[in-house]
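Subject: sequence -> C-alpha coordinates, single chain

Hey, anyone have a minute? Need the predicted structure for the following. Not urgent.
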Amino acid sequence: MKMKLLAIDDEPSILRILSLTLKEHFDVTTASSAVEGLKLMEEVSFDIILTDEQMPEMNGSEMIKLLRKRGDRIPCVLLTGFLPPIEARKQHLNQDLVFIFRKPWEAQELIDALSEACWMSKIKDA
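Reply:
Had a minute. Here:
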Protein backbone atom coordinates (compact mmCIF):
# COMPACT_ATOMS: atom_id res chain seq x y z
CA MET A 1 0.00 0.00 0.00
CA LYS A 2 1.30 3.45 -0.92
CA MET A 3 1.93 6.05 1.74
CA LYS A 4 -0.45 9.02 1.75
CA LEU A 5 1.30 12.25 0.84
CA LEU A 6 -0.15 15.75 1.02
CA ALA A 7 1.58 18.15 -1.38
CA ILE A 8 0.99 21.85 -0.68
CA ASP A 9 1.98 24.65 -3.07
CA ASP A 10 0.27 27.83 -4.24
CA GLU A 11 1.37 27.25 -7.86
CA PRO A 12 -0.99 24.88 -9.74
CA SER A 13 1.75 23.91 -12.21
CA ILE A 14 4.03 22.77 -9.37
CA LEU A 15 1.21 20.69 -7.87
CA ARG A 16 0.61 19.03 -11.25
CA ILE A 17 4.31 18.23 -11.64
CA LEU A 18 4.52 16.88 -8.09
CA SER A 19 1.45 14.70 -8.63
CA LEU A 20 2.82 13.28 -11.86
CA THR A 21 6.29 12.75 -10.39
CA LEU A 22 5.16 11.10 -7.17
CA LYS A 23 2.01 9.17 -8.08
CA GLU A 24 3.84 5.87 -8.72
CA HIS A 25 5.32 5.92 -5.21
CA PHE A 26 2.73 7.75 -3.10
CA ASP A 27 -1.01 8.27 -2.86
CA VAL A 28 -0.88 12.02 -3.59
CA THR A 29 -3.42 14.61 -2.46
CA THR A 30 -2.81 18.28 -3.24
CA ALA A 31 -3.71 21.57 -1.59
CA SER A 32 -3.15 25.06 -2.98
CA SER A 33 -2.50 26.71 0.40
CA ALA A 34 -1.39 25.90 3.93
CA VAL A 35 -4.90 26.71 5.18
CA GLU A 36 -6.43 24.27 2.69
CA GLY A 37 -3.83 21.67 3.68
CA LEU A 38 -4.62 22.06 7.38
CA LYS A 39 -8.32 21.55 6.65
CA LEU A 40 -7.56 18.39 4.67
CA MET A 41 -5.46 17.08 7.58
CA GLU A 42 -8.51 17.35 9.83
CA GLU A 43 -10.37 14.96 7.51
CA VAL A 44 -7.65 12.62 6.26
CA SER A 45 -4.65 11.01 7.93
CA PHE A 46 -1.48 11.52 5.88
CA ASP A 47 1.87 9.76 6.25
CA ILE A 48 3.94 12.72 5.08
CA ILE A 49 3.56 16.40 4.13
CA LEU A 50 5.47 18.06 1.29
CA THR A 51 5.02 21.82 1.47
CA ASP A 52 6.38 24.85 -0.28
CA GLU A 53 7.96 27.47 1.97
CA GLN A 54 6.93 30.64 0.12
CA MET A 55 3.13 30.89 0.02
CA PRO A 56 0.73 33.74 0.71
CA GLU A 57 -1.28 33.84 3.96
CA MET A 58 0.81 31.21 5.74
CA ASN A 59 4.20 29.87 4.67
CA GLY A 60 5.32 26.27 5.03
CA SER A 61 7.37 26.88 8.19
CA GLU A 62 4.44 28.55 9.92
CA MET A 63 2.18 25.66 9.00
CA ILE A 64 4.66 23.12 10.35
CA LYS A 65 5.00 25.09 13.61
CA LEU A 66 1.22 25.06 13.94
CA LEU A 67 1.15 21.28 13.36
CA ARG A 68 3.81 20.75 16.03
CA LYS A 69 1.96 23.01 18.45
CA ARG A 70 -1.11 20.80 17.94
CA GLY A 71 1.04 17.76 18.74
CA ASP A 72 1.05 16.38 15.18
CA ARG A 73 4.30 14.51 14.54
CA ILE A 74 3.82 13.80 10.85
CA PRO A 75 7.09 14.09 8.90
CA CYS A 76 7.28 17.26 6.79
CA VAL A 77 9.51 18.08 3.85
CA LEU A 78 9.85 21.80 3.22
CA LEU A 79 10.46 22.77 -0.42
CA THR A 80 12.39 25.98 -0.83
CA GLY A 81 13.81 27.84 -3.79
CA PHE A 82 16.59 29.24 -1.63
CA LEU A 83 18.82 27.73 0.98
CA PRO A 84 17.92 29.28 4.32
CA PRO A 85 20.66 30.70 6.54
CA ILE A 86 22.37 28.13 8.77
CA GLU A 87 20.48 29.30 11.88
CA ALA A 88 17.13 28.79 10.16
CA ARG A 89 18.20 25.34 9.01
CA LYS A 90 19.22 24.42 12.55
CA GLN A 91 15.85 25.63 13.81
CA HIS A 92 14.05 23.43 11.26
CA LEU A 93 16.24 20.43 11.95
CA ASN A 94 15.75 20.84 15.68
CA GLN A 95 12.03 20.43 15.12
CA ASP A 96 11.43 16.70 14.94
CA LEU A 97 10.78 15.24 11.52
CA VAL A 98 11.31 18.37 9.43
CA PHE A 99 13.48 18.08 6.34
CA ILE A 100 14.50 20.81 3.91
CA PHE A 101 14.65 20.07 0.19
CA ARG A 102 15.77 22.63 -2.35
CA LYS A 103 14.04 23.54 -5.62
CA PRO A 104 14.52 22.75 -8.42
CA TRP A 105 14.58 19.04 -7.71
CA GLU A 106 15.56 15.88 -9.48
CA ALA A 107 12.58 13.49 -9.43
CA GLN A 108 14.41 10.49 -7.96
CA GLU A 109 16.16 12.62 -5.32
CA LEU A 110 12.80 13.98 -4.16
CA ILE A 111 11.25 10.49 -4.08
CA ASP A 112 14.24 9.24 -2.07
CA ALA A 113 14.05 12.18 0.36
CA LEU A 114 10.33 11.64 0.95
CA SER A 115 10.83 7.90 1.45
CA GLU A 116 13.68 8.54 3.88
CA ALA A 117 11.59 11.03 5.84
CA CYS A 118 8.80 8.45 6.17
CA TRP A 119 11.30 5.78 7.19
CA MET A 120 12.91 8.03 9.80
CA SER A 121 9.51 8.87 11.29
CA LYS A 122 8.79 5.16 11.73
CA ILE A 123 12.12 4.69 13.54
CA LYS A 124 11.40 7.63 15.88
CA ASP A 125 7.95 6.23 16.65
CA ALA A 126 9.32 2.77 17.43
